[in-house]
Amino acid sequence: MAKNEKNAPTMDKISTLLDILDIDGVPVLVSTKEMWDKIYNFPARPDDLILATYPKSGTTWMQEILDMIQNDGDVEKCKRDSSLERCPLLELKFPHKEKTDLEIALEMSSPRLIKTHLPSHLVPPSIWKENYKIIYVARNAKDCLVSYYHFHRMTSLLYDPQNLEEFYEEFMSGKVAYGSWFDHVKGWWAAKDTHQILYLFYEDIKKDPKREIEKILKFLEKDVSEEVLNKIIYHTSFDVMKQNPMANYTTLPTSLMDHSISPFMRKGMPGDWKNYFTVAQNEEFDKDYQKKMAGSTLTFRTEI
Ligand code: A3P
């Protein structure tokens, strides 16, 4: 589908657009709002592993790493289905699927790997209650913004921004699905002090995947051989995942994700924001960033 066609106001598109509603002030897609009671009452199980991220922070990458760990580095098992099918996104209903991902999760056998983009204060209480394990991946805001912009362009789930300038304003004011990046990363950062959360950074995983995967193994109390560890690193590298149809989302209908507009596996490189931000934008961003992150102990690398 050409970009112009994607811009065309179909009924589906309009309802997605108009119904970015909010839960507790956090913008969410219409399907999330519609099934909010079910999401909030989702019954987590003790052996669930929850992967939480702000969109475009390396969710699919971490999912692949965790699936490889759970399957002891068996690449074929990890190709049993596409990313979206292997690990439900708790709060969404994808238009090409009959069931909501929550329904799919309820039918899954344990141990389940479930992902969510919800901010920490909206996570179903059952997950907090039993103190189940959660892995959170954060990515620096500049690269996250650029990645989210391109994702908006290629998916019919989200509105089509006119240009980066427009999207920049929306992102900085938190008027995007899942709300403010700032509130998200800070909320989960605070939550880790009272819950079993392993808080990881996209840039660290890129810089030293072995060290970060070892952290995950320790958190999950899991041991793998050096050979399996190397297999996990290789299979989850950007170039290998980009070629893997079960990990790169190319098996989804083009009406949902159009990789000819922008591939899902786009660049995978910290510092790509430099190719998009103007000098003025960058200065404005840094000023705003200081204000919004004031008092936080969280630090990010915007390049490696
Ligand atoms: P870019 O758009 O910057 O390339 P999410 O899965 O949360 O939607 O995040 C998508 C982002 O993670 C995209 O970023 C994508 O390219 C990147 N990504 C996916 N797999 C990766 C990998 N193995 N290594 C590095 N980045 C990866």
TrEMBL record:
GO MF entries: 3'-phosphoadenosine 5'-phosphosulfate binding; alcohol sulfotransferase activity; aryl sulfotransferase activity
GO cellular component annotations of the record: cytoplasm
SUPFAM superfamilies: P-loop containing nucleoside triphosphate hydrolases
Chief localisation class: cytoplasm
Gene Ontology biological-process annotations: 3'-phosphoadenosine 5'-phosphosulfate metabolic process; xenobiotic metabolic process
Compartments in which it is found: Cytoplasm
Keywords assigned by UniProt, alphabetized: Cytoplasm, Transferase
Domain of life: Eukaryota
Main EC class the enzyme belongs to: transferase
Cell cycle as UniProt keyword: no
E.C. code: 2.8.2.-
Keyword DNA repair: no
Domain Sulfotransferase: 46-296
Similarity-based family: Belongs to the sulfotransferase 1 family.
Protein name per its UniProtKB record: Sulfotransferase
Source organism of the structure: Aotus nancymaae
